[in-house]
């Protein structure tokens, strides 16, 4: 297990280093390690590092007013935890993590509605939530999430028509929404006549 340098609750053993700086550095290292483990296909081992990194990151909000950069990082951590939980086939928990990321990002987008990164993350969170709801056979919730993602992604493509990645994201959302609506329609058909 990774050992933290110094005493994170008090002063650091190294002369002149504030505990907050050490905590921030440790949180960043834990989050990077968690992300790397996800990328190599090991979400089970990634999750404890991500959760500990999140805990240290959230502790910073108690000692200072969170900056936009800090809030963006916090949202990113929730996204990574959600991805790990999804890969561990824990969709209900993944939904909660993506909802937390979404709430933070909605606040950021309200403050700066022209920020493409915030708008892109909003679309991504709604899209992933749609996928997770589908995993739980919650087709109505999935369709609602895909509709929200679609509105955001259509606006992004209108504002930035030359961005191929935005068009690709939009196409994926349209496809998933169509599939979700087809599933929802099939669920609502009368039981007679179905095999």
| Gap from first CA to last CA | 53 Å
Low-pLDDT runs of 5+ residues are 1-14
What percent strand? Answer: under 5%
Counting DSSP H or I runs of 4 or more residues, the number of helices is 7
Kindly state the number of beta strands. Answer: 0
Percent helix range: over 70%
**Assembly state of the chains shown:** single chain
Largest sheet, in brief, is:
none
Order of helices and strands: HHHHHHH
CATH architecture of the domain at 68-187: Alpha Horseshoe
Could you tell me the mean pLDDT? 87
CATH class of the domain at 68-187: Mainly Alpha
Q: What's the CATH superfamily of the domain at 68-187, by name?
A: Tetratricopeptide repeat domain
Structural class: mainly alpha
Description:
It is a single chain. This protein is an all-alpha fold. It has a domain at 68-187: Alpha Horseshoe (Serine Threonine Protein Phosphatase 5, Tetratricopeptide repeat), CATH 1.25.40.10. Helices cover 75% and strands 0% of the residues. The chain is built from 7 helices and no strands. It has helices at residues 19-39, 43-61, 68-87, 91-111, 116-135, 139-159, 164-188. α4 (91-111) packs antiparallel against α5 (116-135). The longest helix has 25 residues, at 164-188. The chain is globular. The termini are far apart.
């Amino acid at each position: 297990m990774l050992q933290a340098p110094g005493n994170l609750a008090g002063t650091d053993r190294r002369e002149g280093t504030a505990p907050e700086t050490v905590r921030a550095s440790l949180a960043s290292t834990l989050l990077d390690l968690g992300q790397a483990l996800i990328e190599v296909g090991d979400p089970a081992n990634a999750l404890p590092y991500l959760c500990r990194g999140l805990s240290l990151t959230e502790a910073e909000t108690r000692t200072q007013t969170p900056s936009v950069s800090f809030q963006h990082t916090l949202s990113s951590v929730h996204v990574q935890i959600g991805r790990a939980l999804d890969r561990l086939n824990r969709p209900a928990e993944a939904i909660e993590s993506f909802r937390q990321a979404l709430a933070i990002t909605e606040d950021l987008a309200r403050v700066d509605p022209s920020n493409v990164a915030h708008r892109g993350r909003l679309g991504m969170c709604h899209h992933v939530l749609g996928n997770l709801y589908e995993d739980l056979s919650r087709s109505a919730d999935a369709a609602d999430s895909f509709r929200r993602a679609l509105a955001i992604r259509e606006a992004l493509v209108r504002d930035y028509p030359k961005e191929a990645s935005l068009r690709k994201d939009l196409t994926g959302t349209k496809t998933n929404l169509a599939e979700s609506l087809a599933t929802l329609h099939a669920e609502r058909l009368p039981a007679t006549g179905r095999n």
